Amino acid sequence: MPQPAFAKTAAISIADARQRLLAMAATLTAAVVLAAAPHARAAAKPPEAAPREVRGVRLDSICSVCGVVSEVRSETRDAPPDAKGAVAGAVIGGLAGHGMGGGSGRTALTVLGAVGGGVAGNTIEKKMRRVTVWTTTVVFKDGTLRSYDRDSSPNAAPGDVVVIADGHPVRVER
User: Fold this and answer.
1) pLDDT in tens, 82-113
2) 163 confidence band (pLDDT: 50, 70, 90)
3) Rounded to whole angstroms, how far apart are CA atoms 168 and 42?
4) Residue 46 φ then ψ, to 5°
5) Mean pLDDT of all residues belonging to the chain
6) How far apart are CA 55 and CA 146, in angstroms?
7) Do residues 120 and 93 touch, judged by C-beta distance below 8 A?
8) How far, CA to CA in Å, does 163 sit from each of 35, 51, 55, 98?
9) Are the C-beta atoms of 139 and 68 separated by less than 8 Å?
10) Which residue has the higher pLDDT, 95 or 57?
């Protein structure tokens, strides 16, 4: 029995669509592979030599465990969260949600109020308890660079020679 004309056309159209889809998938795969590949560099940059001087202090003139303060900066950050704001917000939100609706709607509103209140309370607490953090950047004799954070102003300024004691830079008298 011969096939109707539209069936032959449909079979060709499906085969054609499948072939085009495979071609598009191959093109897309090639584009993703090329985009993810590392870019070639014309000339490799030689590694930078360790600094010999920081803020007017020659690194070869300091002790082997000493460093030179290259920068001191302060910034205000959100305080680390604790559970007080979230708990208080959850209680208030849960009570507010419980006061609305009735039946199973009341339960849903209580849960929704507690969750929303907890998130809001945590956010409000973080914003209210902001802290100032001082970051001191030190360059050591071997050229390595490290940064140290503290919650009070450091007793060191750029150009000071320091040693690390108890995890913080301490100025050394020269």
Assistant:
1) 777 778 777 887 777 777 767 777 777 777 77
2) very high
3) 42
4) -65, 150
5) 77
6) 16
7) yes
8) 46, 18, 16, 59
9) yes
10) 57
